Amino acid sequence: MNVPFLIAKRYFFSRKKRNIISIISNIAMIGVAVGSMALIIVLSVFNGLEDLIRAIYSSFDPDLKITAVEGKAFETDTEFMNRIRRTPGVAVVSEVIEDNALLRYNDRQMVVKVKGVSENFFEQNEIDSSIVEGSYQLHQKNEYYALVGRGVQYQLSIRPNNEFVPLQFMYPRNTKFNPLNPEASFNSREIIPGGVFAIERQYDDAYVFVPLNFAEDLLEYGRRRTSLEIKVEEGQRIETVKRALQEVLGSKFLVQNSDEQHTSLLRAVKVEKLFVFITFAFILGIASLNIFFSLSMLVIDKKKDIAILASMGATATTIRNIFLFEGALVAFIGAAYGLSMGMLVCNLQQTFGLVSMGMATSVVDSYPVKMEVEDFIMTGAAIIVITLLVSIRPALKAAAMSVTDNL
């Protein structure tokens, strides 16, 4: 039988409602409940934002991406490509050429990112589900077509499938500039706009997809590629295939999974989440100061009880534990209410989308939330540490109280 806990429970549940100590304890409990609820909700929102970022880029990014460690392009040949295709777990290898070029349409122009892709590109990519106008086909009846981002379309007022007004790309040639004939220093190629995609503003405002052969001709890359995009076979672990490819390619190439392709953005979300956790932990600490005051007043109020317990043989450790348990009861009951309310709010947001993001988006209409066990563990650990810190001094003071002075 845990005597200190039984006495602490009696003190907690048997106090008179009008007792000022009870009022302060209830205020402390409410503060802990509100703080822990807010912490769980905010951390769940950050988890949801991480998943939202991954969902947005999943239609654009491959499972694995191979790039050169130095320079923006690397040479490929049949033997090199076969080594990659023979790697266990590799299902599809798409060749990519990506570079900046000047795009003209009618009397308007802008610099865009031209992404030339091989024919198997759509076998591992979900861009076809992001087409908002026209078709996603890049080849049709021996004709080349381009896919333009919605932002590019708005900027240049592009009309898809208008064969009378093609897109005109210009790219500087690897020759000496001739001021007498400046156009001779640029490659110029035309292509029909076949469709418009809408993925995310970063891509919609800058990217144009074209067939790989068209990009080779325009950019004069030959057998050089800026990246290779890999689809991993079903049932294979991406990290296992990544390590195998890295061993095959060596240190001159970088193999990245989808998270590593956006590492700076995801790291920023994680850092913000950490700082939010620290901030709310401080708020929980301030709310828990009421536990310190209520315990200090309880020690004064129960001086005679402490003296009687000591005279009956209770040790200083027993008396100290009574008040530590008292502080723990206040904090943990408040935390239990707070965590339960936080879980309820998150479930309601997931089910009904109560809070809107307040902007037009094709991805989600309301704030995404995702509850993780680690957040509940971290919140619980923070409450334990804070409770111990605010309860230890009143508990030690009670343990050091003189018996003779209080009987």
UniProtKB/TrEMBL annotation:
Spans traversing the lipid bilayer: 20-46, 274-300, 321-345, 376-396
InterPro entries for the chain: ABC3_permease_C (IPR003838), Lipoprotein-release_system (IPR051447), MacB_PCD (IPR025857)
Domain MacB-like periplasmic core: 27-247
Cited Pfam families: FtsX (PF02687), MacB_PCD (PF12704)
Keywords: Cell membrane, Membrane, Transmembrane, Transmembrane helix
Domain annotation ABC3 transporter permease C-terminal: ranges: 278-402
Membrane topology: Multi-pass membrane protein
UniProt-annotated location(s): Cell membrane
Family, per entry: Belongs to the ABC-4 integral membrane protein family. LolC/E subfamily.
Name the record gives this protein: ABC transporter permease
